[in-house]
Prior knowledge:
Two copies of one chain form a homodimer. The first copy, chain A, contains nine helices and 19 strands. With 379 residues, chain A is an alpha+beta fold.
Amino acid sequence: xxxxxxxxxxxxxxxxxxxxxxxxxxxxxxxxxxxxxxxxxxxxxxxxxxxxxxxxxxxxxxxxxxxxxxxxxxxxxxxxxxxxxxxxxxxxxxxxxxxxxxxxxxxxxxxxxxxxxxxxxxxxxxxxxxxxxxxxxxxxxxxxxxxxxxxxxxxxxxxxxxxxxxxxxxxxxxxxxxxxxxxxxxxxxxxxxxxxxxxxxxxxxxxxxxxxxxxxxxxxxxxxxxxxxxxxxxxxxxxxxxxxxxxxxxxxxxxxxxxxxxxxxxxxxxxxxxxxxxxxxxxxxxxxxxxxxxxxxxxxxxxxxxxxxxxxxxxxxxxxxxxxxxxxxxxxxxxxxxxxxxxxxxxxxxxxxxxxxxxxxxxxxxxxxxxxxxxxxxx
Amino acid sequence: xxxxxxxxxxxxxxxxxxxxxxxxxxxxxxxxxxxxxxxxxxxxxxxxxxxxxxxxxxxxxxxxxxxxxxxxxxxxxxxxxxxxxxxxxxxxxxxxxxxxxxxxxxxxxxxxxxxxxxxxxxxxxxxxxxxxxxxxxxxxxxxxxxxxxxxxxxxxxxxxxxxxxxxxxxxxxxxxxxxxxxxxxxxxxxxxxxxxxxxxxxxxxxxxxxxxxxxxxxxxxxxxxxxxxxxxxxxxxxxxxxxxxxxxxxxxxxxxxxxxxxxxxxxxxxxxxxxxxxxxxxxxxxxxxxxxxxxxxxxxxxxxxxxxxxxxxxxxxxxxxxxxxxxxxxxxxxxxxxxxxxxxxxxxxxxxxxxxxxxxxxxxxxxxxxxxxxxxxxx
Lengths: 379, 379
């Protein structure tokens, strides 16, 4: 009569012991934090002590942890836990909903996304080390403050300089301007995207040319204009890039300061900005990347982007690279981008289209985009 | 009969309007967040929408916002508010306690302190602009990854290079190693302390010599040792500094790589580390700063710090600057430091003691420490 319950207890104990020995604290945790933990099958276990809460949920800020909110289970001591299904590899925002209130995990580092500092969990991808910190020469990410006349305010740019930059005192370098997505900021590409390690690794392997990468925040309000997301915002950012940021970068760093050595790319909102700004200013840019950007369906080649695609021969002569990427798990971004790429190809405008297998509107897609895009630049 | 309530309503309306028109969103908020707000008399108003909470408190992570936890008041729509008494100027950590749970403010940037990412509020100091971003040449804060053999792990250092560094390709610079306090990390001195702006301003005014400032995390576990705060930790950090960090910095940057051009300082735990490491290695350091460090009372000159103070003449010959600082509102740090400073002076060992008026164990003390300490360096 007692056999069944004892077996169940043993089984439970065994399961728990397995999960514990097999799982590792996420690399995105703060020093010493044991949870969240990722097991070898990529299930992620979250844990929050909230004895007085009536309901605690895990809210993923993206698609890779599964559909949220995920109800957490209360233990006897008031610790709530949840384990996700096997997660998509990569970086995922998350937060807790404690009786409906957004609560960050004190065990996680914070990452600026969703318009606020957010928790995040790194799920490793088996065999993928292109964004790992490796024993190769490392570039620097330099925090550069500068005054923008457009906004009459100080702004912060993050500037990646390749490992050789300070050793080759006479060399000059091409520049990629690389933009984050909506709700993120100039820290996203290094903190979440690990862009510096991706470039360090590509450059060390000889796969990408040494380049400077400039990461700025894609928000701007023109001096004197009202704050907010008005129509003037995107044009103010364009003015910042052209009239403040590029002149400052070219005056401060040893750049190759011409259109043949200047590119711009971005993810999501930032990809839209990259297309808008570069295609309107081909005198300044010749390398263009759009990662998971929200593109309109039904591209009119004659009128879209100021009619820049109307003359395919002229466009091809000017633009060295037009590159699109999207994840196969983000159909709403993938399909219009694929359609645009096809329409352009049919019109004789060469471009590259990359599909990131199995990833959605999240950073693993954009890390891979950068890995694929950067080697093609400045050739 | 109706006069009194009407008057009260008008009065209330007037008070509220005054507070609203007079107050400003804290500069430490995320873009566009209206709360926390600081009024001209330095009262700080906090606001959190948590309709389902039974009790919400504001918990200051320091002394400058008043004694906590401070009970917040629930409004009809479930928004809880609290206004502090006039705050001490400077940066203050804070978080909410929502039914006892630690909850960061999604309206605030986060700052690594208390062993986790924490909310923080910046309260301006009237007339003090020594840590403001001003129209002067700006140095860079460079994120530098390096491999430490001591810990067999990659570490991140923040390296401030003065504005002229890239323009003076042949110049070499002295180096200050500058450590954070317990629960903080290598980001503290720039994010919370604004050390880069303090140095930019001092250097631009000719008050401090251009220097490199290296900010590292004061934690280390020797390769193969168990994680944690064991006895080996502080010695592992000492080994990192001497055997990994300094050699890497001297190999990577144009430093003046000798003891006459190398200093170390730190705040709280970091000040203790600075004293411990420098006084045991006067062959490597000659400029020493201790900001609000927990010092033992009753210094035995013959035995303390390996007996380095026993021969005053020899010490004075070697050490160019020994500097102590503390806030007048942190008696437990001020008194032992003052006593140590006095004991040393009486023994013929020159040193500087600085008291930060009205500030406690918080960043405004340490910003002022750096403002007073840096101008004396490398003369």
